[in-house]
Amino acid sequence: MKEKPLILITNDDGITAPGIRSLIKIMNTIGEVVVVAPDSPQSGMGHAITINSTLYCHKIKNVEGPQMEYSCSGTPADCVKLAVNELLDRKPDLCVSGINHGSNSSINVIYSGTMSAAVEAGIEGIPAIGFSLLDFQWDADFNAIETFVKKITLEALEQGIPKNVVLNVNFPKLAQQDIKGIKICRQAKANWVEEFDKRTNPLGREYYWLTGTFINQDKGEDTDEWALENGYVSVVPVQFDLTAHHSIQQLNTWNL
Amino acid sequence: MKEKPLILITNDDGITAPGIRSLIKIMNTIGEVVVVAPDSPQSGMGHAITINSTLYCHKIKNVEGPQMEYSCSGTPADCVKLAVNELLDRKPDLCVSGINHGSNSSINVIYSGTMSAAVEAGIEGIPAIGFSLLDFQWDADFNAIETFVKKITLEALEQGIPKNVVLNVNFPKLAQQDIKGIKICRQAKANWVEEFDKRTNPLGREYYWLTGTFINQDKGEDTDEWALENGYVSVVPVQFDLTAHHSIQQLNTWNL
Fold first, then answer.
1. Domain A6-188+220-251 has what CATH class?
2. Positions of chain A with pLDDT under 50
3. In this model, does residue B64 exceed pLDDT 90?
4. pLDDT of B174-188, one tens digit each?
5. How far is CA A40 from CA A13, A62, A113, B45, B136, in A?
6. Above 0.90 for ipTM, yes or no?
7. Radius of gyration (Cα) for chain B, nearest Å?
8. Within 13 A of B45's CA, how many CA atoms are on the CB side?
9. Contact call for A45 and B50, based on CB within 8 A
10. In the CATH hierarchy, which fold is given to the domain comprising B6-188+221-241?
């Protein structure tokens, strides 16, 4: 790549989150940065888009650093659509999303606003990476993973991310010197077992809070869960062709 | 299956939509039906779940038919989680979602609330099918496709849907006698090219409406788009392991 790469940055924790500020700082050392991120937290939004409502988007001035920033009322996927089709003069060379406050490993990729932004960029033909740290605290230590974020980003720009694939990168909550390395993984076969906390509101009406326990019954040592539990950064290639090609033959035996 | 199958029904157009009323009517001829559906339209919600807010859910009385019905404030995926983990006494034998007013073929599967409900059921180990009609009108003619919905559902119960796979079924907008049959397909490689309609609100502030054009550059005759354009019902097996297994080898050559 001859000229400085144009890097679109978004997230799902909102434009003021420490995770995206950390990502902006790193990306400013690599390319020309434009930030288009939600004006409020959008965790758990999956691949939601705003089709029956309006979107607001305004330019933020007086920020630290050279980057342009836009704060948007929509979902992470909306932010990418707005950036690519309305706000940017040219197609970004890379879209990075995060750094998420909390894990997006295993099945969490499907609920993740962070990853939906990366996937949306992928659908639009833009190389994309989602970054997440296994620490959902607002004051999580993103400094510990900066060198890994930069290394993965530079290698992605150098090698090119495979077509129709985006990267889901998760970091263990460890000090920099305790991270053992980076592993290419598959998504662990795990899921949430939900419990609903039933309460009564001040007006006497019952309501629920969703809670749950993450259950990993996948014993493979090639999974993202294994890597993270053993001190490695996990990189999972994620696809958006959801066809279960391997089951087409079986379904063709059905009497339809 | 010896006893009557327990069938969970949900959708993303909301519990009052004609599409779900049609699905309830059909499923009442097959099994014991419980409806847990959103109290308002949730189109385009993708796999969103409600993690930072409360959920309300109330039983609806005096409905036509023998089925129990619950109206919920959350997303389609929330409805399935609530049904399985809080409302139902036993695990459903099948979850059906829809019938959606409008297409969920090709890349639309990823934005679809209808399909996210089916996928959520699949993640929880419940056989699941999403049904969509290529007619987004409220008064769409669901009668024309009833026999096909019933046929596919009975065959799914008889044969068993492959593990870790859910079915995405789309129907062309045709009279019953003009539908040529049912085809097992792969998801077409197509996408939306967005345009944002920029307007000014009464207070002088600019806002956007998301609009777009669906572009299918996939010429394959084994795709859902081809089937639907040629008068067939499309059935795509959908997976929720998003790992792009085929690109792991390539990524392992990176210098990380």
1. alpha beta
2. none
3. no
4. 999 999 999 999 999
5. 7, 19, 12, 17, 31
6. yes
7. 19
8. 25
9. no
10. Stationary-phase Survival Protein Sure Homolog; Chain: A, (3.40.1210)
